[in-house]
Every structure is written in structure tokens, then in C-alpha cells.
Write a structure and sequence with these properties.
By secondary structure, the chain is of the alpha+beta class. Helices cover 19% and strands 24% of the residues. Strand 5 and strand 6 form a beta hairpin.
Length: 339
């Protein structure tokens, strides 16, 4: 660490010798404001967050995390824990304190027979699922692949499998956690059950989780993508979405968003910045989502409002495209065809 002893200040001046001893005890680097990589290490996904910690411990393993918590407690430092750095409020970075940066801890062990995965907290959901797919498996958390697994899991964990398999914390089997006394503990339904209850959504002050054991699920080919309409059609689209979502199968996860189209490669240039309503959706169904309007053409029931032929349910006005035959349906019944 390049920072000179006594050169770092926090709420009170730090003991330079204690800082140097702390740095020497770590496998990973300890960064101060004058060190190369400090600004990159304090940056988070939300660019509006601009905080300046006194120290950033880029932990390489559990022992580094134990040493960091012990040091922060002894020095009376504010403490924050960073996983993927994707939290919108930027709570993973503090001013004038110590950041425990777990982003370098990316170990992963998958047990395909038990359908479990033990993941370290530096992994993102995209990285976790990339390796799980080698075994035809998937994890439940994360709508956005670059989101880190720790914060999302400990706060609940919505993801594309939520309707079929629940939240990330519903699939959390155990954690290894360094608590405020600097000790490493395992928490599960059988071991330290109160602590295990606490880390599953009760708050962020119980310790730093250094590994997660998840239940994972068979996931093959997934049909996914956004359906987008101009913002002026929002009332029509939202009415349809409310009606369709009430009867959609558990294999389908979707949502409704109001947003402006980004200048992304898949967006035509003339639509950049356009205000739209969209529904990002993903389905795990190995069968079609519906039987089709008349039961003969086999078209999927997942169809959005269009100006083409429509079928209207007599009970909830769900609209479906068809082979050309018109149909009347009632909720829960197979559509019957009439010309």
C-alpha cells in the first residue's frame, strides 16, 4: 500500500502503524486515496454516488474479511460491504470509513446431483448462471445479469424464475458469515437458525456473508425479451397486462415498465430516447403457454394488443391471435371455435 503512515484521515486520524499492520495481514490489496486503483474501486453502478472511503480492503478470502471487521471495530471506523456495487443508493461505499470489497471473491462449486451451488460474494448473477448452464441448471435471483448476488439475495432476490421457484432467499440453504465480532460462522436452518432467519431479509447489519449455498433448478432453453409499445398506448397495454397476468402460468415471469429507450445496439437509432411502455418477459415452459384460440392452430396464448384479429374472452377479455377462426372462451376452459 503506497499511502504513508498517518496520511489517511477519517472521523479521527488513523494510526499509521495499525494501518500498515492491517495491510500486511491481508492477502488482497488495501487501497487508500493516493493508491492506483482507488477511484475505480470506490466507483459503483450509480454514477451519482461519489463517496470517498478512507480505506478499501479488496478481500481475497474469509480471513481478509475477518481481519477487516476486527480492524474497523478497533479503529472506530464506519464500515460498508461491497459485493457487485449495483445498489441504487450506493450503500456499499461509505465516506471516511472502511469498505470491505468482496468483488474479487469469485469461487464457485456446483453439485449437479444435489442441485446446489456454493458461491462466493464477488460473483454476479450472470457469472453464476453461466457456469450453472453447463449442467442445465439455473439460479433464481437477478433480473439484471451484472447485479451481484450478495445484496440482492440478502434483500429478497427477485429474478426470472421467481414465479416458478420463488425468491433468491427462498432458495438459500446456508451462508458462511463473518459477524461483528470478527468470527466466521455457518448459518442454516439447523445451525444458528436465528442468524439464518436474520440474514434472509431482516437487515444489513448482521455481518458480511462470504459464501452462499443455493438450491438451483433445471433450466433449459428460455424464451425471453421485451414487448414494447409507444407510451400513448399505456392504458390499453396495462389493462391487457393486468388481465393476462392473473391467469398466466407460473413458468412465465414478466413485468410492466415505463421508460425511455436507451442508445443500445438493438434499438433503431430513430427510436433512441423514445418514451415507451414495455414488458420484459421470460418463460421456462417446455410446452406452449396456451392452447391457442380455437385449439386447432396451436398458437401461443401469449399475445399482446395488436390491430389484427383478436379473440376476446367472455370473462376477462384476454386477447389471442389465431389461425383465423374466432373463438369465445371462459376462464380456465379450452377455447372453442366458431367461424
Amino acid at each position: 500500500m503506497a499511502t504513508q503512515p498517518g496520511a489517511i484521515t477519517a472521523r479521527r486520524p488513523l494510526d499509521g502503524e495499525a494501518v500498515q499492520a492491517f495491510a500486511a495481514s491481508l492477502r488482497g490489496p488495501l487501497l487508500g486515496p493516493s493508491d492506483a486503483g482507488y477511484d475505480a474501486a470506490r466507483a459503483v453502478f450509480n454514477v451519482m454516488v461519489d463517496r470517498h472511503p478512507a480505506l478499501i480492503a479488496r478481500c481475497a478470502g474469509s480471513a481478509d474479511v475477518m481481519a477487516a471487521i476486527t480492524f474497523a471495530r478497533a479503529q472506530g471506523l464506519p464500515l460498508s460491504v461491497r459485493g457487485g456495487g449495483h445498489h441504487v443508493a450506493g450503500s456499499s461505499v461509505c465516506d471516511d470509513g472502511l469498505v470491505i470489497d468482496l468483488s474479487q471473491m469469485k469461487g464457485l462449486r456446483i453439485d449437479p446431483a444435489r442441485r446446489t451451488a456454493r458461491a462466493e460474494p464477488g460473483l454476479t448473477w450472470g457469472e453464476l448462471n453461466h457456469d450453472l448452464q453447463a449442467f442445465g441448471l439455473g439460479a433464481t435471483g437477478g433480473y439484471i445479469s451484472i447485479t451481484g448476488i450478495p445484496g440482492l439475495t440478502l434483500g429478497g432476490g427477485f429474478g426470472w424464475l421467481v414465479r416458478k421457484h420463488g425468491l433468491a432467499l427462498d432458495n438459500l440453504l446456508s451462508v458462511d458469515i463473518v459477524t461483528a465480532d470478527g468470527q466466521l460462522r455457518t448459518a442454516s436452518a439447523e445451525e444458528h437458525p436465528d442468524l439464518f432467519w436474520g440474514v434472509r431479509g431482516a437487515g444489513a447489519q448482521l455481518g458480511a456473508v462470504v459464501s452462499f449455498e443455493f438450491r438451483v433448478h433445471p433450466v433449459g432453453t428460455v424464451l425471453a425479451g421485451p414487448v414494447i409499445y409507444p407510451l400513448e398506448r399505456a392504458p390499453e397495454v396495462l389493462r391487457f397486462y393486468r388481465e393476462y397476468a392473473a391467469t398466466a402460468p407460473d413458468e412465465l415471469t414478466s413485468g410492466a415498465l415505463l421508460f425511455s429507450l436507451p442508445p443500445a445496439p438493438f434499438v433503431p437509432p430513430e427510436m433512441h430516447g423514445a418514451r415507451v411502455i414495455g414488458s420484459p418477459s421470460a418463460t421456462l415452459a417446455r410446452r406452449r403457454l396456451g392452447s391457442g384460440c380455437c385449439g386447432r392452430c396451436g398458437s401461443s396464448a401469449l399475445r399482446w394488443p395488436t390491430s389484427s384479429r383478436r379473440c376476446r374472452s367472455t370473462s376477462h377479455s384476454a386477447r389471442r391471435t389465431c389461425c383465423g377462426r374466432r373463438a369465445t372462451t371462459s376462464t380456465g376452459s379450452r377455447a372453442s371455435c366458431r367461424r
